[in-house]
Amino acid sequence: MASGIDPSGLSGSLEQAMRLLSQASGAVTAQPGEADGQHDQPVPGAEQMVGRGTGGDGLVEAEVGAFGALQTLVIDPSLSRAGTSTIAEYVLEAVQAAQADERARRADLTAAAQVDSTALTQQLERVSQEAFRGFQQMIGDLDAATRRMNRH
């Protein structure tokens, strides 16, 4: 058949759509603007979501995870002579600094994800349009083949 149905283009569109959906779910590396020649950006890792802070001129160090949950707290042993109220003040200072750092990191990653999300949405729309055109072509080819079969 000279104008046979060519599902290869449609298959390619569907494969691209699946790849983009995997990226959107964070399963693989996000690739915004791949068609525009931009470089790939990795999906944020857990390390990027850790906030760090210090208190008491570095005598207390704190790390918090996503949304400020305290993960580690290191208090310099020399503070044992400083008294509990001073230690508590330095711990609070370190934890608050770590939480502020985590919030800033999260805001940066969220802002970057919005740009990636926009580019990804545009790519998915293009793939969807290509797939729709492929389906229309396939339906047209099936209709033409059916008419030819009915005439014979």
Concise overview:
It contains 2 helices and 3 strands.
Keywords for this entry:
152 residues, mainly alpha, 2 helices, 3 strands, rod-shaped, disordered N terminus
Write structural notes for this entry:
This protein is mostly helical. Helices cover 57% and strands 11% of the residues. It has a three-stranded antiparallel beta sheet with strand order 1-2-3.
Walk across the major sheet and give the strand order: 1-2-3
What are the secondary-structure elements, in order, as H or E?
Answer: HEEEH
Tell the overall outline.
rod-shaped
* Total number of strands: 3
The number of distinct helices, counting runs of at least 4 residues, comes to 2
Query: Whole-number radius of gyration?
Result: 28 Å
Low-confidence stretches: 1-6, 27-43
- Which percent bin holds the helix content? 55-70%
**Largest sheet, strands/sense/barrel:** 3 strands, antiparallel
Mean pLDDT: 74
The end-to-end distance, rounded to whole angstroms, is 15 Å
Q: Beta-strand percentage?
A: 5-15%
The chain-level structural class is mainly alpha
